[in-house]
């Protein structure tokens, strides 16, 4: 995927993950993009532990994998801040 697609994809995933974890008011658009991109990497790594593929394009499976990673990332950050 091109860099623009990663930014758009990361922004969407980060925004949905921040709404699920109720941190949307604390995060801006830049942090949503960063969380989404890192979440895609984390989600891909988690799925590889189960023998599945990670993020492979702009599709629903990749969105769900990235969303899983982003939610885990936000959860870990919230746990460490407490």
Outline the structure in words:
This protein is mainly α and 82 residues long. It has one domain. The protein contains 3 helices and no strands. Helix 1 (3-20) packs across helix 2, helix 1 (3-20) crosses helix 3 and helix 2 packs across helix 3 (60-81).
Task: List the main descriptive attributes of the protein structure presented here.
mainly alpha, single chain, 82 residues, 74% helix, 3 helices, globular
The number of domains is 1
Number of helices: 3
Could you describe the largest sheet, including whether it forms a barrel?
A: none
Distance between the termini: 36 Å
Report mean pLDDT, rounded to a whole number.
85
What's the count of strands? 0
N-to-C SSE string, H for helix and E for strand: HHH
Topology:
Layout: H1 3-20, H2 29-49, H3 60-81
Helix pairs in contact: 1-2, 1-3, 2-3
Summarize this structure briefly.
This protein has 82 residues and is mainly alpha-helical. Helix content is 74%, strand content 0%.
